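Hi W., the S-adenosyl-L-homocysteine complex you wanted:
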Amino acid sequence: MDAVPQSLHDPGFSGLEDMLRADGVNPIHAKALWRALHREAVTDLHACDFSPPLQEWVGHNVGEGKRFFLDVPEVVDETHSSDGLTKKFLLRLRDGQTIETVLMGYDGRQTACVSTQAGCAMGCVFCATGQMGFVRHLRPGEIVAQVNHVRRVLGQSAPDKRLRNLVMMGMGEPLHNYDAVMHALATISDVRGASVGPAKISVSTVGVIPSILRMAEEGRPYNLAVSLHGSTEEERSSLIPVSKRWSLESLIDACRQYGTITGRRIFFGWTLIAGKNDSEETAHRLAALLHGIDAHVNLIPLNPTSGFDGRTSANAAGVKFQRILRDAGFPCTFRQRRGIDVAAGCGQLKADKKARAAS
Ligand code: SAH
Ligand code: SF4
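Structure:
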């Protein structure tokens, strides 16, 4: 029986070298192949001007019905915010699953927000992806492919613009798909490829403790963002069911260890929900919880989703919350509600498209 076709976007550089070597091709050609796949983000290797041995290998091995394919997702929906600065893409993978990727171009900086899973197993009640449930993990190539997609879009709209920032804040829980995410990030930050600086990459987690500690122990050079949303076990587990498994107390402990091992600042995400987690008392409790941690708190206005009837906090409550944290010595900023008119909340474009199809 024929082997299952493999993605050429999955292997790392040495993986490509091994692959060519195994086929009797000089591994020196991996350089040109890597460049085409990861720097130029080409969609068709057959159109590349490779040297004859590589061209021949591509001709024999890449394409429909052959051993290898490229991860080039199909765009099934695309929305632009009214100010034109946020573009959101719904991308279809080879097995028909759809995922979201967002490109944000504020303050002269281009930031991509990518997905790491189809759906999510963590079930946060306010999150459109959590409301869908888990479908499957993404492969490294499927994560890399989202970055390549936005880089092609940028190339078309403004050749002088380069993708400099990356956040793993799309659909899915990155630290529930640890190996694929870390492998993809090594590829994306490779200076011979997309070359997004590790210090400009953020991995956001709902609090998968073993993976947070693994990131620290392995010396992963990326920023860590931890989505907290609750200052007591009850407050948090009413929003994030998985915090019954990884308690708030043990999560904060893990963050302290992460900080001690890495010496890095941790970014704590806090989605503001009126009457749920936006009181002055909660803000004081949060400040006490974070005491001694090099922490930055990001306040996120709640985006409405069909499966949750909470509302975002009133402006005054958010500002008061911010002031309490600042007075306690923590940098605290608001993440702007960028592109709410393009359904830029996690998982919302997919959920909206489903709703449109059903009506
Ligand atoms: N699973 C990871 C990363 C993806 S979610 C995590 O939870 O951190 C990225 C961020 O979007 C998280 O901080 C999450 O809490 C937030 N988020 C999800 N749904 C939201 C909504 N409806 N409104 C505002 N923020 C939301
Ligand atoms: Fe998953 Fe993050 Fe959404 Fe929670 S907020 S369901 S962890 S994607």
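The longest strand covers residues 74-80.

W.
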